[in-house]
Amino acid sequence: MNKEKSFLRNVIGEYMTTLGEKNENVVIVNADLAGTCRNTSFVEKYPDRAFNVGIAEQNMVSFAAGLSVEGFIPYAFSMAPFLTMRALEQCRTDVAYGNRNVKLMGVYAGVTGGISGATHWAVEDCGIMTSVPGMSVFEVSDAILARKLMDYTLEKEGPTYIRIGVEPTENIYNEDISVCTGGSVLAKDGEDGMILCSGVVVQYALEAAKRLRENYGKQIGVVDMYSIKPIDETAIEKAAATGHILVAQDHVEHGGLGMQVANVLVKKGLQTRFSYVGLPDRFVPMAHAPYLYHEFHLDGEGLAAEMLKLWE
Amino acid sequence: MHQMTVRELEKAAKDIRIRLLTLCNKETIHIGGDLSSADIMTVLWQYQMNYDPDHIHSEDRDRFILSKGHASAVTSFNQAAIGCFDAEDVIAEYATDEGRFSMHSCNLVNPYVEVSTGSLGHGLPIACGIAAGLRLKGNYTSRVYTVMGDGEQSEGSIWEAAMNAVHYQLGNLVALVDFNGLESDGTIDEITGLKNIADKYRAFGWNTIELDGHHIGQIKEAFDGLPPADSKVPTVFVCHTVKGKGVPFMENQRRWHAGKISDEQLKESIELLEKEFEGGGSHE
Q1: Which residues 6+ apart lie within 8 Å of B109 measured at CB?
Q2: What angle do CA B99, B100, B103 make, to 5 degrees?
Q3: Under CATH, which number does the domain B6-278 receive?
Q4: Confidence band (pLDDT; 50, 70, 90) for A1?
Q5: Mean pLDDT along residues A219-238
Q6: A67 and B129 in contact by Cβ < 8 A?
């Protein structure tokens, strides 16, 4: 395991040139945030295949839908809040209703926008995008996973939303992982309980598992639920078999990963102690992301404490 | 492009109106905007567009996006007129639970619909993406046509796309605005004061043509005069029209945005349309 950290928006933005080499139909549509989304290397390498519609997210998504009508594979990049909220109807009607092969790439997922404040956070995007019929939703936690997911988007046709944080994340995986729709990665096995999580939180869950082992002798596993929708129901069943599930995501609790997992537990009638943590049902003032993760029990210390509550 | 005279197109437009009214006697349709756009749609589909119903995915076809998605009936009847399906099918299936035709255009059930529409302000931005995609593929001969409403011009996304089309030099894009002056809640003047649509497009850098949207000869001439598809400036036709055109009790009446007519109204309206046509039409 490589302990260096990666910035996933850089990993994904820069990997676009590789996708561009692999498939000549790959095109990018930006809305004046090519730099922020770190895809300028593609723009420079393939200027004809890179469009920038200006600060006009609605137009960006519709324009991308139009390019897909002509057989291109557009990757539309913006900040997650603008992409999933300002241009939501375009994502839903022009991309999903039309079953277009458009990849919606949202950076600044969760509260990773930190000191920019709620205007630049996307703490509702999973709830929003998972409710759109036919939309696949993914969240990346690690550089290798991110590259594999990007490769996978070339194989998997259809409306896709990928949420990408901007906080540095620890490198977790080796090249032996694989990625698919409805998949997950067992980041760490454990027989006493499981933390189901995604994105930036996965690294904190691993830290929590370490604390719980060292301080309490509990063997806690971590499952990276990178496919938010469809969700890996088998992984949830396996986790339920441990008797203790904590779900954690950088997202408001409503509509987030916790509710998605709860839904599977109830539908399948699975018996387990269960809880989930996320951001509260109120707007929170701007602050650095690590401060917010600590405040809302999404860091290693907080997750360990939340997990222990399942034994109370 | 199909060889048709002005007179033949006037007859075609009259037939479209009769189809619309026949359907409107059976189901509620967006009759006001269907009738206001009937002439421009007829000339577009039955004269201008390169579209082969037997090869609907052919690369060299012209693309059509119905930005004012509620004008689905007038689109379907024109597609029927060129052989996509039977006009009788449109009437039989319209607004039925498993039909191909309804209040808006949907490509889940109707493959002749390039893109599903209904929500306003989407067609022009999508058309821009298609137009840019054609260029990127090296297709410099196909055009992209989109028909918009005038009330729809209030959507900000229209103007995002209006900027974009000029910036990307999409001379293969032809937008038509059905400027009938009425939107859902009142006249355009009352609701938004959106008076000079043509001036606005001119200011954005479009090749802007104003015409009488019920003058078949003018419409045909405007299409004949289009700059080549490989040119660099997008074109907009600002078509001055009358909502409910051809049916006196509907003309300029807000309540006929959508509705249904009686047997008696149908009979009288058809007689009037036939009489007007026999009288030589208003624009020989």
Answers
A1: B99, B100
A2: 90
A3: 3.40.50.970
A4: very low
A5: 98
A6: yes
Count, residues in chain B: 284
Closest approach of chain A CAs to the CA of B18, in angstroms?
A: 32
Rg (alpha carbons) of chain A, rounded to whole number: 19
pLDDT of residue B281: 55
Backbone phi and psi for residue A8, each to the nearest 5 degrees, phi listed first: -70, -30
- The answer to whether the CB atoms of A59 and B160 lie below 8 A apart is yes
pLDDT at B79 over 70: yes
Are B164 and A94 in contact (CB < 8 Å)? Answer: no
Contact B125 A98 (CB under 8 A): no
What is the strand order of the sheet A160-164 is part of? A50-52, A26-30, A73-79, A103-107, A160-164, A136-139, A227-229
Q: State residue A86's pLDDT score.
A: 98
ipTM of the predicted assembly exceeds 0.85: yes
H/E run at residue A5: strand A5-6
- CB distance B133–A70 less than 8 Å? yes
Contact list in B for residue A49 (CB cut-off 8 A) is: 136
The A-side interface with B (CB below 8 A) comprises 27, 29, 48-49, 51, 53-54, 56, 58-59, 62-72, 74, 89-90, 93-94, 97-98
The C-alpha atoms of residue A75 and residue A260 are separated, in whole angstroms, by 26
With tokens 């999933």, the residue in question is A84
Read off the pLDDT band of A178 (50, 70, 90).
very high
Q: How many CA atoms lie within 13 A of B122 on its CB side?
A: 27
Query: Which pLDDT tens digit goes with each residue over A267-306?
Result: 999 999 999 999 999 999 999 999 999 999 999 999 999 9
| φ, ψ of residue B30 in degrees (nearest 5) | -80, 70
CA-CA distance, A83 to A122, in Å (whole number)? 10
Say yes or no for a CB contact (<8 Å) between B164 and A54.
yes
Neighbours of A105 (CB within 10 A): 28
Structure token digits, residue A186: 């067992």
Task: Show the domains of chain A with their CATH numbers.
Answer: 5-170 (3.40.50.970), 185-309 (3.40.50.920)
In this prediction, residues B217-234 reach a mean pLDDT of 98
Within 8 A of A67 by CB-CB distance, chain B residues are 129-130, 132-133, 136
pLDDT digits (tens, 9 = 90+) for B21-45: 999 999 999 999 999 999 999 999 9
A-B interface: how many C-beta pairs under 8 angstroms?
A: 96
Domain ranges of chain B: 6-278
